Amino acid sequence: MVRAGVTAARLTEAAALMADEIGIDKVTVSALARQFGVKDASLYSHVKNLRELRVRVALLSGEEMTDRIAVAVAGRSGKEALVAFADAYRDYALAHPGRYAASQMRMEPEEVAGSVGLRRSVELTYGMLRGYGLTDPDLTDAARLLRSTFHGYIHLELSGGFAHSREVRESWSRSLDALHVLLTNWPTRPEGNA
User: Fold this and answer.
1) Which of 16, 63, 131, 161 is the most buried (most CB within 10 A)?
2) Assessment of whether the complete model's pTM goes beyond 0.85
3) pLDDT digits (tens, 9 = 90+) for 130-145
């Protein structure tokens, strides 16, 4: 690669591509420096350290996935929105496993402060769940349920954890049917419990 034109944005994109190829945990500043044909030290004028680079990949990935979900759920509600949301989420994770893994890492509040993509992701999730008549704190509980269900399923799928002969896509579809029933019949809290 040519030395000219190294920017934080180009480094982030290159790291994201590398993450999909070899995994986010194997992305290093040295590997990127080799790809760009520069010394490691020259990249530190664009990113502070490896952690910042990985956070940048996580935020980029979150924005990309949110963009896909937004397009998928536009004009939809209820089960149709849930399925569109879930399918866009899963499709992104399967197509970009390294980026998806980066998007799941824990980030500190100061690392994500001002992230429009993260805020938009929360708004899309809550907006879809409001279609089921949920309000806080049930919105938060339901969002956590969906994220953990989607992530667990995708993690098992990506790692080859589903060995049964039943088609994985069919089980995914049935899981979404079950989530729709649950969201439609969300349990009420006893009076006084929040």
Assistant:
1) 16
2) yes
3) 999 999 999 999 999 9
In which residue are the tokens 């708004």 written? 123
Question: 147, 65, 57, 55: which is closest to 110 by C-alpha?
Answer: 55
Find where tokens 């994109």 sit.
13
Is the preceding omega at residue 190 within 30 degrees of 0, hence cis?
no
Task: With CA atoms as reference, report the closest residue to 96 among 20, 14, 182, 11.
Answer: 20
Hey, how many other C-beta atoms are within 10 angstroms of the C-beta on 105?
15
In this structure, the chain runs to a length of: 194
What DSSP designation does 171 have?
H
Which class for 132: exposed (0-12), middle (13-18), buried (19 or more C-beta within 10 A)? Answer: buried
Q: How far is CA 144 from CA 34, 40, 126, in A?
A: 40, 39, 11
Q: Measuring CA to CA, how many Å separate 1 from each of 18, 29, 33, 56, 78? A: 14, 15, 10, 21, 48
Per-residue pLDDT at 112:
87
Positive or negative: CA dihedral 41, 45, 50, 56: negative
Confirm if 58 and 102 have CB atoms less than 8 A apart: yes
- For residue 182, give Cα distances in angstroms to 145, 155, 179: 11, 22, 5
What residue has token string 């990506």?
158
CATH of domain 54-184: 1.10.357.10
